[in-house]
């Protein structure tokens, strides 16, 4: 019998990894900062991450998506990872979690 694929559990594991990646200019992880719009996992363990950057001219526009892809691909369960950057909708401070706002003294 084929092992049932628990994409939800893998998605949660991926989110834990994303919470270890920090924006170099802001002392908050990219997940709590609201840069991750979606994490999709299919039954072949391929992952697609839809994310944004704080600005289109972000100094880590090239390196941050690469870091996300490499960190997620380092998980044993993940076959492949594709990171797609979007600016629709554009990032705003409202996308930050309460935890991030508290960390940055915005609450």
From TrEMBL:
**Annotated SUPFAM superfamilies:** Fe-S cluster assembly (FSCA) domain-like
The lineage's top-level taxon is Bacteria
Q: What InterPro entries does the record tag this protein with?
A: Fe-S_Maturation_MIP18, FSCA_dom_sf, MIP18-like, SUF_FeS_clus_asmbl-assoc
- Write down a Pfam family by its short name: FeS_assembly_P
Q: Which residues form the MIP18 family-like domain?
A: 12-85
Q: What is this protein called?
A: SUF system Fe-S cluster assembly protein
Give the species this sequence originates from: Antarcticibacterium flavum
């Amino acid at each position: 019998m084929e092992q049932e694929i628990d994409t939800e559990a893998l998605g949660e594991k991926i989110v834990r990894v994303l919470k270890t990646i920090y924006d170099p200019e802001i002392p908050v992880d990219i997940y709590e900062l609201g840069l991750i719009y979606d994490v999709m996992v299919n039954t072949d363990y391929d992952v697609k991450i839809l994310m944004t950057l704080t600005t289109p001219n972000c100094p880590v526009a090239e390196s941050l998506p690469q870091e996300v892809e490499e960190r997620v691909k380092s998980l044993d369960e993940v076959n492949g990872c594709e990171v797609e950057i979007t600016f629709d909708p554009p990032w705003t401070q409202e996308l930050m979690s309460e935890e991030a706002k508290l960390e940055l003294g915005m609450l």
